[in-house]
């Protein structure tokens, strides 16, 4: 029974580690893309997002 508990604990730790690595990968990817994107492209993306949320912008 002790072996099962240790195995479940190790599995949960591996899942958490995988989730952290995946979140960090996506987060760094967003920062990288936003950092190298032209300002006009970022403005257009924010403007289009405001329209999709029915938020008046002009």
TrEMBL record:
UniProt cross-references to NCBIfam families, sorted A to Z: CbtB (TIGR02459)
Protein name: Cobalt transporter
TM spans (from-to): 17-37
Domain of life according to the entry: Bacteria
Keywords: Membrane, Transmembrane, Transmembrane helix
